[in-house]
């Protein structure tokens, strides 16, 4: 009796892998249709980041730095006095660069350049408001001594809703393509066995406006701004089991 039990147990152990294999065939052994879908959603930009800098030069570092501080404080105060809701100011760059005379042997320092960069950030505005505020901020900064508008970047603050919409459309396209392929091949779709997705991010092109050493009339210092739109893409890949 004991020998019969052991023999039965061994047979069960050897048969189990084959039973499992028959019940749960790996995806590679299934008949599949592989397809994908891509979708793009366009949304109006509602935010902007403006990089403003004050650059001063001179032979005396202490005087150059003091002049830079005074001008930067004046620029910041002028922007703050605009009283724009949800406006954020942040220092993004400060550097002191020695200017060397390489004709001298050995080269010697002939002066210094002090660069103080500040980011002005506005988020969640209607396009018209965003355009107006960005233009006024640039004008005020230039009027009060800023001499470099390094970059202007418009963007969408909350991309999640648009990304979800793009993913939903991409999935619908992938399923529709699978249905078309199945109909053309004379087979039936059984179930989705694999589904993967990811947003396709394209870095926005910043609007560059360089203005080092600007000498202009006050009324000409407010350039028109166009916030534009952002394009959000998503791609979905899926595998359908067929019968």
Give a structural overview.
It is a single chain. The chain has a domain at 45-157 and 206-227: Alpha-Beta Plaits, CATH 3.30.70. It is 35% helix and 37% strand. It contains 4 helices and 7 strands. It has helices spanning 2-23, 61-80, 127-143, 160-185, and strands at 32-44, 47-58, 87-101, 108-122, 148-155, 189-200, 229-242. The strands form 2 sheets. The chain has a 4-stranded antiparallel sheet with strand order 3-4-2-5. Strands 1-7-6 form a 3-stranded antiparallel sheet. A hairpin with a 6-residue loop joins strand 3 (87-101) and strand 4 (108-122). The longest helix is centred in the last third of the chain and has 26 residues, at 160-185.
Percent in strands? 35-45%
Radius of gyration: 32 Å
Oligomer: single chain
**Order of H and E elements:** HEEHEEHEHEE
The dominant shape is elongated
**Residue ranges: pLDDT <50 for 5 or more in a row?**
1-25, 206-220
Mean pLDDT: 84
Beginning-to-end CA distance, first to last residue: 46 Å
How are the strands of the largest sheet arranged? 3-4-2-5
Q: What's the CATH H-level homologous superfamily of one domain?
A: Protein of unknown function (DUF541), domain 2
Return the CATH class of one domain. Alpha Beta
Please outline the major beta sheet.
4 strands, antiparallel
CATH architecture of one domain: 2-Layer Sandwich
The CATH topology annotation of one domain reads as: Alpha-Beta Plaits
Helix tally equals 4
Structural class: alpha+beta
């Amino acid at each position: 009796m004991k020998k019969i039990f052991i023999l039965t147990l061994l047979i069960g152990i050897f048969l189990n892998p084959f039973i499992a294999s028959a019940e749960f065939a790996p995806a590679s052994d299934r008949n599949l249709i592989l397809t994908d879908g891509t979708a793009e959603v366009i949304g109006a930009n509602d935010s902007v980041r403006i990089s403003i800098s004050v650059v001063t030069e001179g032979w005396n570092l202490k005087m150059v730095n003091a002049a830079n501080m005074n001008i930067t404080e004046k620029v910041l105060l002028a922007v703050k006095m605009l009283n724009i809701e949800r406006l954020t100011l942040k220092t993004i760059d400060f550097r002191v660069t020695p200017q060397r005379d390489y004709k001298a042997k050995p080269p010697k320092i002939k002066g210094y350049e002090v660069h103080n960069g500040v980011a002005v950030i506005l988020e969640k505005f209607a396009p018209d408001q965003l355009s107006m505020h960005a233009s006024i901020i640039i004008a005020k900064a230039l009027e009060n001594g800023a001499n470099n508008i390094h970059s202007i970047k418009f963007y969408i603050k909350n991309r999640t809703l648009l990304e979800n919409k793009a993913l939903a459309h991409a999935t619908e396209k992938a399923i529709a393509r699978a249905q078309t392929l199945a109909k053309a091949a004379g087979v039936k779709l059984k179930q989705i066995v694999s589904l993967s997705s990811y947003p396709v991010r394209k870095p926005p092109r910043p609007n560059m406006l360089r203005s080092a050493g600007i000498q202009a009339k006050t009324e000409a210092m407010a350039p028109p701004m166009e916030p534009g739109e952002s394009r959000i893409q998503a791609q979905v890949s899926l595998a359908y089991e067929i019968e």
